[in-house]
Specification:
alpha/beta, GMP Synthetase, Chain A, domain 3, Rossmann fold, eight-stranded mixed beta sheet, 11 helices, 34% helix
Length: 358
């Protein structure tokens, strides 16, 4: 007769690629029982996984059947907790985790990735907000398709704008679209701090922060004063972009912010007429960078006219074409980033490189 101990051992023998370790060891088994010769397992993940629930349940059921010969009913849920931030900082009220989306240089599609990442996390089952930290060039109001002005119940704290189911705040909601922000660095960092602290965020699992490109005042202020749980680095395969992306990655590591992984944007282009695939900006740069710094390549995204058209039209890809291949890629990236935040990089994911003198 199969025991609960054997069932737990079977569950721990299954290593899911998103979690990177046995389910029991990862604390993902909420309950596991055997009733009338049938196993019943309830999983509670540390990240949202609505789009992956059926695959995971089938995989776990198959693992139990293979190891123990038992049919197994598996339910999958999640509970998102606050994760470690920089020393001497604590998570903010109503925000469990802040994820910074950064790039070393402009023009790599960082804001488009940030918007789709936030919306993908929402579709995966999380409560999500997005903060547009690019004071000089705010783009999230246009990408989210909102011209709404934030309101305030007390004249002090603003309510976030709701767009496509997520909470959003940007200096772009407070000024005319064509109005330039002619401010020096200290004014910009103060404005960012106010946008974050003077917005009435409501029970967020993740706040995605769309950073301006580079490693200047805003990035430094965010990494030193704001409790960031993790960072996602966006680059293209181009060597110049990779050089600057490395600087952004190293900046977060120096201030002890966990880098969740690298997103390679504009990885390739597929001709809409003939289907020919071409690596316009080079090939494999994101993977090489991820391997060099022992972080995960979260995903590769194509250079596709639809992504640009949908962002300009205020309906990012995961909303405009939720069943498309590109939307699936964004949701895969969102799950992987959230899983890395919850469970870290899987043991043995990268080889140990030793240099010796022969």
């Amino acid at each position: 007769m199969t025991t609960r101990t054997e069932l737990h051992a079977a569950l721990d023998s299954y290593v899911d690629p998103l979690i990177g370790r046995g389910l029991a060891g990862a604390g993902a088994v909420k309950s596991a029982e055997i009733e009338h010769g049938r196993a019943k397992v309830e999983l509670e993940l540390g990240f949202p996984a609505a789009g992956d629930r059926d695959r995971l349940a089938a995989a776990v059921s198959g693992a139990v059947k293979s190891r123990l010969g038992l049919d197994c009913d598996v339910t999958v849920g999640w509970a998102i907790k606050s994760h470690a931030v920089q020393k001497n900082l604590q998570p903010l009220p109503q925000i469990r985790n802040i994820i910074a989306v950064a790039s070393g240089k402009g023009g790599v599609g960082k804001s488009t990735v940030a918007a789709n990442l936030a919306l993908a996390l929402h579709l995966e089952g999380a409560r999500v907000g997005i903060l547009d930290a690019d004071i000089y060039g705010p783009s999230q109001p246009r990408m989210l398709g909102s011209t709404e002005r934030p309101t305030s119940q007390d004249g002090k704290i603003m309510d976030p704008v709701i767009a496509h189911g997520i909470q959003a705040m940007s200096i772009g909601f407070l000024i005319d679209e064509e109005q330039p922000m002619i401010w020096r660095g200290p004014m910009v960092t103060q404005a960012l701090a106010q946008l974050l602290s003077e917005t009435r965020w409501k029970d967020l699992d993740y706040l995605v922060v769309d950073l301006p490109p580079g490693t200047g005042d805003v990035q430094l202020s965010l990494s030193q004063r704001i409790p960031v749980s993790g960072a996602v680095i966006v680059t293209t395969p181009q060597d110049i972009a990779l050089l600057d992306a490395r600087k952004g990655l190293q900046m977060f590591r120096r201030v002890e912010v966990s880098v969740l992984g690298v997103v390679e944007n504009m990885s390739y282009h597929v001709c809409s007429n003939c289907g020919h695939r071409e690596n316009i900006f080079g090939e494999g740069g994101g993977a090489r960078m991820a391997g060099q710094y022992h972080v995960e390549l979260l995903g590769q995204l194509p250079l596709d006219i639809r992504i640009r058209e949908q962002s300009d039209g205020g309906r990012p890809t995961v909303i405009a074409e939720p069943d498309s291949d590109i939307a699936r890629r964004y949701r895969d990236i969102a799950r992987k980033a959230a899983a890395r935040l919850a469970y870290g990089v899987p043991e043995g994911a990268f080889p140990t490189i030793e240099i010796t003198e022969d």
